[in-house]
Amino acid sequence: MIELRQSWPLPDHPLPIVIFGAGSIVTDAHIPAYTASGFVIQGIYDPDLEKAQALAKKHGFVAYATAQEAAAQGDVIFDLATPPDAHTEILAILPEGAGVLIQKPMGSDLAAATHILEICRKRSLRLKMHGIQWQWLRRLMKAAQPRRRRSHRNPDYDLNPWHGAGVRYAGFIHF
Q1: Counting beta carbons within 10 angstroms of the beta carbon of residue 113, is it exposed (0 to 12), middle (13 to 18) or buried (19 or more)?
Q2: CA angle (64, 35, 106) in 5-degree steps
Q3: Which of 78, 112, 114, 143 could anchor a disulfide with 107, C-beta 3.0 to 4.6 Å?
Q4: Range name among 57-71, 79-93, 120-134 with the lowest pLDDT average
């Protein structure tokens, strides 16, 4: 019998994480996932400094007063849990060659996403977009089936389980 690995091994020397954004995805998914996985969160920046300070106090990390202060941190991974329109401004101030996790969607349209890729290439940023974790895909598709069966009046809808009013997938795609 073949034994399959059920989890990814942690890096030998994990870098601490600096988060941009203090919204619900950070409080509900990113912080719990990093903590459960044994990663250290070094700090957080949000334009709403009080919100960032409250999270920092609750979880024991630093709240940065400015985006520049957060971006000046060395030997970290940057997690951009920000709206697409904020990505380019933040990427432009990160240290060259930094590792970056970026919240989806990458850009508000194809031109914005292309611009983000250009910035990353020019500055040698190592970019990874938060995305679907494949171990949840089967559950996601199973969850989609009842909705698709109920839509028998529109055969085109049945062919597209990702239709806007269809599957509530947010809980399955973050960490």
Answers
A1: middle
A2: 65
A3: 112
A4: 120-134
Residue 4, amino acid: L
Q: Which of 19-23, 70-74, 78-82, 155-159 has the lowest mean pLDDT?
A: 155-159
Domains delineated in the chain: 17-129 (3.40.50.720), 134-173 (no CATH)
C-alpha–C-alpha distance, residues 121 and 112, integer Å: 14
Q: Work out the burial of residue 147: count CB atoms within 10 Å of its CB; fewer than 13 is exposed, 13-18 middle, 19 or more buried.
A: middle
pLDDT: which is higher, 160 or 76 = 76
Cis peptide before 155 (omega within 30 of 0): no
Do 125 and 98 contact (CB within 8 A), yes or no? yes
Helix axes 110-122, 84-91, angle to 10 degrees: 20
pLDDT at 118: 93
